[in-house]
Amino acid sequence: MMDVSVRFLNNNYYLLMLIFGVSVSCSEQLPSITGTTSIRMNIHTPMDWGTAADRLDESPSEIEISMAMIKSDGEIDVSFEGSIDLYSYFLGSLTPSRNVVEPDCLWQGAWWCSSELNEVVMPLCRVTLSEGSHFSNAVGNCQIKNDTRLVVTVLSPMYDHSLLWAEHVYDKNATYATGTSESLWIRSPYLQEISKPYDEDSQTALERSPLENKQINVTQSRYGDTGHLIVTGVYPDRYTLSDINCPQEGSTCQTGAYDSIVVYSFNQARDEFGNSLKVGHIVSRLTGAVMEFIGLTELSFPQTFLEDQTPRADKVPEPASIRSDWLRYPPSQQNLIELEKLEASLVSVEGVVCNFDNEYVKADFEEYGQWKVDVGQGCRNAVNIISYGQAPDFDPQAHQNEQIKIIGTLQPVNIGQFHVWIVHPRNRDDIQQ
């Protein structure tokens, strides 16, 4: 029995030696990298970069830099000649986005709009370096100041921790070297800066957020000491938040264009400590991912921090009135933008409940739960209402052809030339007959 065990151990020993020997015989030591391995980039202006504790009030519009291609020994690779792509980096991603073609590529002021509409590289700037550190050609949002200085125009404002990103990737002899500038510390974005399009005349103005796919951190009102971030509506899977201005204690608080957003919580809206949110709660800090859903700007996967647990119903702003001419057909860009300015805001709409004998009205109600209020432009150009979740005891069919006033938050469906504007009452009291 012992002999068998010894023989078994010996056999396994030789097997392990064989495997080990084969692995050793197949190993290979590759030569060290001798060319460029990284990119060094330094900011020369602005001189003030801010700090985490003392942020810059605004993003710099121009950044002057120098650049050098660095070898593994830390020296400049004077043999390097090639094209470097530059991007700004803030809120968790590069801007412009890499390898994504926008239908309206002017929305970020891009210089590559004449490119083929397929997989193209869309850097902020593309610059040629020779002798490892000398600028010889630049295309895009940058300009060569001299052979060692480049001025980069930052078209999209940066927020929070920001920097410039450089890479040697899309070139014939790419080294895949990358590098960053020093850090810039800029204030966090306001709600308005999440919602307001770069260009209100753009064909994507109703469908895109300038900070789409960014991870944002909202910590303050754009109105300074007289401003607050207040919850204006709470729904089963989301809540609405507005940036309000309250000039004096006890005065009516107001909100401006693009000052509101939908915070999509997936289920009951709660603060960071599990407390249910209520209309009037003041938010001190909000984080999450900016996303677009059929033309509605949303903040998803949120973290919500409240100033305290006491709702301030007295600070909830008065609803903005939806004007009849904004629904006129055919829709003009100007009228659509007036509605877009109120996206996620508290609004009021007055009109007549459309008759359910109308096949168009009936079909939308049966399929989507939407009923319509004619504000003077007919039931084909009406404001849609969804109330069954918040006011299940209200039957709009029992009130067809009656005058009505609805208060709620405005949420759109904007897909190309298709535009629907939907008011969501918060409770039965928001439906006034």
Beta-strand residue fraction: 35-45%
CATH class designation of the largest domain: Mainly Beta
Number of domains: 3
Find the CATH topology of the largest domain: Immunoglobulin-like
Structural class: mainly beta
Can you walk through the features of this model?
With 433 residues, the chain is mainly beta. It folds into three domains: 36-186, Immunoglobulin-like; 191-315, OB fold (Dihydrolipoamide Acetyltransferase, E2P), CATH 2.40.50; 320-432, Beta Barrel (OB fold (Dihydrolipoamide Acetyltransferase, E2P)). 11% of the residues lie in helices and 38% in strands. The chain has four helices and 24 strands. The longest helix has 25 residues, at 2-26. The radius of gyration is 29 Å and the shape is elongated. The termini are far apart.
Spell out the blueprint of helices and strands.
Blueprint: H1 2-26, E1 36-45, E2 62-71, E3 81-90, E4 93-95, E5 125-130, E6 134-140, E7 142-146, E8 149-153, E9 160-167, E10 178-180, E11 184-186, H2 191-195, E12 215-218, E13 227-235, E14 238-245, E15 254-264, E16 282-293, E17 296-306, E18 320-321, H3 333-340, E19 346-353, H4 359-368, E20 371-374, E21 383-385, E22 403-415, E23 418-424, E24 431-432
Parallel strand pairs: 15-17, 18-19, 21-23
Antiparallel strand pairs: 1-2, 2-8, 3-4, 3-5, 3-9, 5-6, 7-8, 9-10, 9-11, 12-16, 13-14, 13-16, 14-15, 16-17, 19-20, 19-22, 20-21, 22-23, 22-24
